[in-house]
Amino acid sequence: MKRGVYLAGVALVASSAAVWAQNSPESILPRGFEDPAPAPSPTPAPAPTSAPAPGAPAPGGGAVVQPLPSAPAPVDVSGVDLSDIPSAAELEAMTSEELDDLFGLKPRYDIPPAARRSTERVGIIGQGEGGLPVGSLARQPASIVRAALEGTKGPLVSRWGHILLRRALASRLNAPEGMDDVEFAALRASTLNTMGEHAAARALVQDVDTADYNGALTNAALGAYLGTADIVGACPVVRLDGVDGDGLQWSMFEGICAAYAGETTSAQNDLRRLLNQTPDDQIDVLLAQRYAGAAGQGRRAVTIEWDGVEEMNPWRFALANALGEPIPENLSETLGNYYLKSSALIPALPVTQRLRGADVAASSGILSSKAMVDLYSQLYANRENESDSVGLTLASRLRDAYTDPSPAARLAAIKDVWGGNSDEYGRLVLTAYAAARLTPSEDFAEDAGALIASMLTAGLERDALRWAGVVEEGSVGWALLALADPDGGQVSDGQLDSFQDDDDSSGQRKSRMLLAGLAGLGRTNTANINEYSGRLGVNLSAPTAWTRMIDKAAEADNAALVVMLAGLGMQGAGWEQMTARHLYHIVSALNRVGLEAEARMIAAEAVARA
Question: What angle do CA 284, 285, 289 make, to 5 degrees?
Fold first, then answer.
């Protein structure tokens, strides 16, 4: 019995040892190192010799497993300029961006290689969406395209010309022959900015990977982001390595972007240093500090003091709007068209502030009629919380223009929206669809010209043509339909004579524009053109460098180049700066390259606004 127990115990011990052996770690030493080597027998001390070279066989034939450390070789510093190494004080004084540059911490790319986009075709409107063909400019000389875009430095007088040029610049296009793709994108974005089309410019620059930006595209991008009050949108290009900016604005961008990248403390330190270095522009830095302080845990009280600030700039305007910081009346009451157009595009602003620039934006071509109606609809829908009686009255009358059951009452509401001045083109844009809802009537003949002009601001030519039986021959309404009708016929000398006799515009500019438009569309004969050119004192065919270029572009059937040259020729603050000769060449060239609808709308607009 004891023997059986003993054997069972032996078996248990043996099995336990086996289990333990399976669960214990295995040795990772090379074979021969599991047990300590036996102690060597005493031997005589060897004669002094030089130390073996590292890795050389040891005495006795065995390799040295771990060679003894030898004295390091001296480092040659003769070619190193130690003066470039910053001191501790200099490191402490550096901004976060300077430290990133010093230690190479700024990334070169923010997009994985597989997701990077080609710059061969940059744009946001494809040909199937109304854009121009991709290769429209591929074989055109870069010098002409560059000159046309660089020369367009201001707004266009024509709403329809603006709309057409915006569409061309935003199209997905190849660069002209001999022009870098990024340079072409930068030229287009800069031109859009000068037109007040900051939202379109922002979309265009975002179609290029920030790692591919050059200095010109960076400047265009910053202008677009400021114009839309999208400050953080600029951070990808500001934070990436490759493009370096300078000046106060760039430094403020760096501080803001560092704060939103999580470097709140260093960003605030950088901005605080800027504040001490810029006594004349402290309001700019204070706005930047307030904006940066909204990031992460860096919130701190920043008091914005406008005392002593006598002028506005894009940075102040964008930051104040992004922060909801009220702009003093002495600045807000004298804002120029740049700021009015910009405010109309910033969705974060209250509707009442956006409406201040809506008329300018609409007459320029930035806002459509539907966008204008949407703005006033928002104001009316929130009327209980609004105190702007002027805006609310206008919104209420606009609603009456659509919904009143009486046609006469709707016309009265439309005229109230015009404010007794149908020459206010932005208000004509606002009432375009309300005017189209009116049934033509002899009772409304006196206002037919203004109603037709209103409809044509939105391209509602078919609705406008319903008034052909109401308007009197030789009237402004008749002239607008003669130009806008897609199936328009020839205009006789008697009709031209009737219009000129009734034309009371300054210098008979409406008659001049009508003649130029009809000549460009080919809707009156050469004899009439010559006769009335002499009567009105115009020379439609006198050549200039610009007329030669746009005529050659039309002969080559290049619509994109014609549009860009037309934009170059339509610059100005008002229609008084547009000549009949320029209008003739623009309408003629557009008509010849297949943009006949746009040519008709521009010609009709010229008569309405001259």
Answer: 125
